[in-house]
TrEMBL record:
Annotated organism of origin: Streptomyces prasinosporus
Top-rank taxon, per record: Bacteria
Keyword annotations from UniProtKB, A to Z: DNA-binding, Phosphoprotein, Transcription, Transcription regulation
HTH luxR-type domain location: 155-220
Annotated Pfam families: GerE, Response_reg
Residues modified as 4-aspartylphosphate: 61
Residue ranges occupied by any Response regulatory domain in the UniProt entry: 10-128
Name this protein carries in UniProt: Response regulator transcription factor
Length: 223
């Protein structure tokens, strides 16, 4: 007796470069557990399309005509959105400041455009599952490069309602470490790390690890 079929991850692809968009659609559409339910070339079209087809994930470029990916992300996944859609931002290094703003706008993660296809597919699956995706290499360069701009002049550890151990875990999250890497660094189990992450997000009223990274840099917890 076979089990209930698993519904494929429904994806919308938004990129103003036709060749890139076509490539993404082809790669994603070839996966048995994914379905491309639409593609478009600007942020306004992405917002409208997502409203009609209700995808699980929108793969979003940053710089586009009509409405850029940051504003589109804010409209799809921002804090005031009643029924947010998960957004996976794809970018290049020279757009890193824009990506930081996209994360603040509500994106669930980001990848480099030159990432191999398997990393893109893993990213879509990760974001669709409700987790956040942070590329460690990009995290260190992306948020770290703008730490001086986004960090308040005072703050530090004051008024942060976390235990010393939770602060330690938060700093490692901000460094782009995965749960397994944090577990190895602190010599604790992955289940314990998951518990710490859950407590951190709850105490700080954060949605996911992406917001935790932004919070850590804004409060000056990472140099």
């Amino acid at each position: 007796m076979s089990g209930t079929p698993v519904r494929p991850v429904r994806v919308v692809v938004c990129d103003d470069q036709t060749l890139v968009r076509t490539g993404l659609v082809t790669i994603i559409g070839a996966q048995p557990d994914m379905e491309v339910v639409g593609d478009c070339a600007d942020g306004r079209a992405a917002v409208d399309l997502a409203g009609r087809v209700r995808p699980d994930v929108v793969v979003m470029d940053v710089r586009m005509p009509v409405l850029d990916g940051i504003e589109a992300t804010r409209l799809l996944a921002g804090s005031g959105v009643r029924d947010p859609v998960k957004v996976l931002v794809v970018t290049t290094f020279n757009l890193d400041e824009y990506v930081y703003e996209a994360l603040r706008a509500g994106a669930s993660g980001f990848l480099l455009k030159d990432a191999p296809p398997d990393r893109l597919l893993h990213g879509i699956r990760t974001v669709a599952s409700g987790a956040a995706l942070l590329d460690p290499e990009v995290t260190r360069q992306l948020v770290g490069r703008y730490a001086s701009r986004i960090r308040p002049s005072d703050g530090g550890d004051r008024e942060i309602p976390l235990t010393p151990r939770e602060l330690e875990v938060l700093r490692l999250i901000a460094d782009g470490l995965s749960n397994s890497e944090i577990a190895a660094a602190l010599v604790i189990s992955q289940e314990t790390v998951k518990t710490f992450v859950s407590r951190i997000l709850s105490k700080l009223h954060l949605r996911d690890r992406v917001q935790a990274v932004v919070y850590a840099y804004r409060r000056g917890l990472v140099s």
